[in-house]
Amino acid sequence: MEGVQVGHLAKLAEYPFVVISWVDDAGYPLSVAATFEVDPAGGTVSLTAPAGEVVAVPTDREVNLLGSHIRPTPGQGYDERRYLQLWGRAAAPVAGRISFSPTHAWGWDEAEIPFFEYAERSVPQSRRYLAQLSEEQGRTVRPRLSLGWLLLRTTRLPFLSATLVPVLLGIAVAARHGDFQWWLALATIIGASFAHLGINVSNDIFDTLSGADEMNVNPTQFSGGSRVLIYDLLTLRQLVALDLGLFGGAAAIGLYLVWATASQTLLLIGVVGIALGIAYTAPPLKLVYRGVGEIAVAIGFGPIMLLGAYVVQTGSLSWEAALASVPVAILVALILYVNEIPDRVGDAAAGKRTLPVQLPQDVVTGAYLVFALAAFVAIGGGVIGGLLPVPTLIALAAIPLAFRVHRGIRQNYASPYALMASMGTNVNLHLYVGGLLVAGYVIAIIVAALT
Amino acid sequence: MGWLPEPVERLLDTALVGELTVVRSDGRPITHPLIPLYDGEQILMHSSTLFSRKLEHIKRDPHVSVSLTDPIALKGLPGRATIQGTARVIEDDPHAQWERLILDLWRKKEPVIDAFLKMRVALPLFFERAVIEITPERCLWWADGDTGHVPEVTVAPREKAA
């Protein structure tokens, strides 16, 4: 509750009627609708007195006034939800009207605080309530999700495309060079996926422990972490166990691949990749806190993944594979970059120096377009320079998506939830460019086989 | 069977939003817009654990009132009503119990709820819920919705009252 201001009364005036409530002599609340007029200058509300002794508004105790609005939207629920409550004293009716003098106010308007933010700000209340309930029932009562949804949420499984794109592209480049063993390719995909999910979970652990995720009250499906610890869906111990399992799986498969290929280079790439992923949020390096998170992600999910997959097949490095990783690296870093835009307030509060935290809005949006187009320049330059096969130019078909994302972030920079569509398109940009590059390589392989 | 006047039962069956008023720890009333459900005897409302202060208030003081006042939420149905009663919070299993108790009634009034339930993973705490079971004890009904007229008052038969 807060003190009543002129703004509260002006807002109340927008409602067609109010509900006036009080606690009757028997101790029951009693609520009655009433028409009303607001006197902003006098700081009072004039109500039509409800008729009848049974609904006589008392003058010896505080009453509550509620203005409430929803717009039912068939098939979708509601929108335009808002309500405003005022507390104060009512005077005895004069000529059928009651003067109400509010002293306290409280309310919510989803046009000012979106529902998802309102819900996020209420998480501490949920935790407090469930803790109290656990105490009352003598057993732990916690929120739950089915195992499948819980794993999807905890590991942020949909972001696996960030791994699949460079790994498949690395395998495709190797295949064009005449090296392809399907079981090694499969093991690479599984091992890299384990590593990626392990990194996701460890980042989540450190972001929660540092308070960065908790300070972010605008999480979206693309940003703000999994929040499984904040929501108490898992304990820290469970999350650490899952993380160790994922890293264990990644390490086992990685060591198998090192043994199978006898490649020291692969061992080095694997160690650097996992170290980079953990150091992204983990102390002492905490790369994302030092303003180099985007670069770390570009390296980890660009050349590290792609060259790793390439080395598994060929046993050696190549300039072509390195160049093919450039557009993928830029676009994956841009996924992070755009997803950091809605997180920037919470990140700044937690001391994370991401680029959207450090740079003004116009620089952030402008730099997005520059780097997105640089990814396509790298592809075109690679083809002109003879390093990338000509069919990979089909990836340029995704250029319009970059402009769409740029337009979206420029228009919705300050609105986390309106930005979600652009964040989704940006994820697709990386996926489509990567997919088209792989397709370009497959075409090149087929053409070479036929000629 | 319930004892509420038939037109009030119709309002309960139709209303997309009603107002639940509870008593705070400082003795002041506080009113929450919520969807009312009706099983023919009890009024059933529900609350996410996210917005569970009202549940704490009810557990401390179970006296409540439910008013049906908004012509838009009542889809143009004439009349207004206020029902006073005693509430009980059903919260043994906030994850699943409410689904067993009220999902069919909720779905009947708001079919879109199934689509939201499929997205439970996106907002898990929103669907951790307690049910507020209200036993009506006294009903005030304004047939034409004008509270400038004296309401018709009906009281629960003695054996039905909580």
Brief summary:
The complex is a heterodimer of chains A (451) and B (162). Chain A has 451 residues and is α+β, with helices and mostly antiparallel strands. Helices cover 57% and strands 14% of the residues of chain A.
- Residue stretches of chain A low in confidence (pLDDT < 50, at least 5 long) are none
N-to-C order of helices and strands of chain A: EHEEEEEEEHHHHHHHHHHHHHH
Largest sheet of chain A: 8 strands, antiparallel
CA-CA gap between termini of chain A: 78 Å
Rg of chain B, rounded, reads 16 Å
Query: What's the level 1 CATH class of the domain at 6-46 and 53-91 and 132-157 in chain B?
Result: Mainly Beta
Pattern of helices and strands of chain B: HEEEEHEEHHEE
Instruction: Please name the CATH topology of the largest domain in chain A.
Output: Farnesyl Diphosphate Synthase
Task: Please describe the topology of this protein.
The complex is a heterodimer of chains A (451) and B (162).
Chain A: E1 2-3, H1 6-12, E2 18-23, E3 29-34, E4 36-39, E5 44-48, E6 63-73, E7 77-90, E8 97-109, H2 115-121, H3 123-137, H4 147-155, H5 161-176, H6 182-210, H7 212-215, H8 236-261, H9 264-279, H10 293-314, H11 319-350, H12 355-358, H13 361-384, H14 399-411, H15 420-450
Antiparallel strand pairs in A: 1-8, 2-3, 2-6, 4-5, 5-8, 6-7, 7-8
Chain B: H1 6-14, E1 18-23, E2 29-34, E3 37-38, E4 43-48, H2 53-60, E5 63-68, E6 80-90, H3 97-109, H4 113-118, E7 129-142, E8 152-155
Antiparallel strand pairs in B: 1-2, 1-5, 3-4, 4-7, 5-6, 6-7, 7-8
